[in-house]
Specification:
single chain; alpha+beta; OB fold (Dihydrolipoamide Acetyltransferase, E2P); 4 helices; BOBF_sf; signal; CarO-like
Length: 126
């Protein structure tokens, strides 16, 4: 009886440890990115200097729909591609031409330009 209990406890411990280690590989949680983005209010031109997965806040205008959930975003310093999931887009009631404040994650790529994966976006009155 005691042996079975120890075995069961050990297997539970392994499951918990495995679960924790996969969580750390999954990247940053959205609430961590939002906190980080509050400290990184940047312009498009500054994004290029930031590391992959850095949380950022940008203010500007959605200027073009590129494809599926990718849009062009512009501020006074330049343009960048942003990725906005359909559910976030619809919830915010967005359209091309809107002025927005967005919170997102810098997403660097090997063979294409850096873009921003949006986790939160809101229309700005202009």
């Amino acid at each position: 009886m005691e042996y079975t209990m120890k075995k069961m406890m050990m297997s539970c411990g392994i499951v918990v440890l495995t679960g924790l280690s996969t969580f750390t590989w999954a990247g940053k949680d959205d609430h961590v990115l939002v906190q980080e983005a509050a400290k990184h209010v940047v312009t498009v031109s500054q994004v290029a200097k930031l590391a992959d997965e850095t949380g950022v806040t940008l203010t500007g205008q959605i200027t073009k729909h590129l494809q599926s959930d990718h849009y062009e975003f512009k501020d006074q310093s330049g343009t960048i591609s942003i990725e906005v999931d359909d559910d976030i887009w619809r919830k915010a009631g967005l359209k091309v031409g809107d002025h927005v404040r967005l919170v997102g994650e810098v997403d660097t790529h090997r063979h294409k330009p850096t873009d921003i994966e949006v986790i939160k976006i809101e229309k700005q009155m202009h």
